[in-house]
Amino acid sequence: MTTTTDLExxxxxxxxxxxxxxxxxxxxxxxxxxxxxxxxxxxxxxxATLLPSPELRRQLAEQAEAAAAREGAIRIDMSxxxxx
Length: 84
Ligand SMILES: [Zn+2]
Known about the structure:
Strand order of the largest sheet: 1-2-3
Helix content: 40-55%
Structural class: alpha+beta
Radius of gyration: 20 Å
Largest sheet: 3 strands, antiparallel
Number of domains: 2
Bound molecules: zinc ion
Order of helices and strands: HEHEEH
Oligomer: single chain
């Protein structure tokens, strides 16, 4: 049964509204790995929404962590150059 709460969670196109679940047979293995895709139902609109998979979320978190670590290293180098 669909409730109002369920409908509010569905992605929507900013211009056309309704989006449809992309059929699995119209996705590459990479797209399937990334998560669940929705496409705008307007035939000329290319708007798509991705609900990321746990695997993709994990990879993005790892990349953000690595970027933050690099940022920290840069900060240390700058303070060192100030003191010398
Ligand atoms: Zn659209």
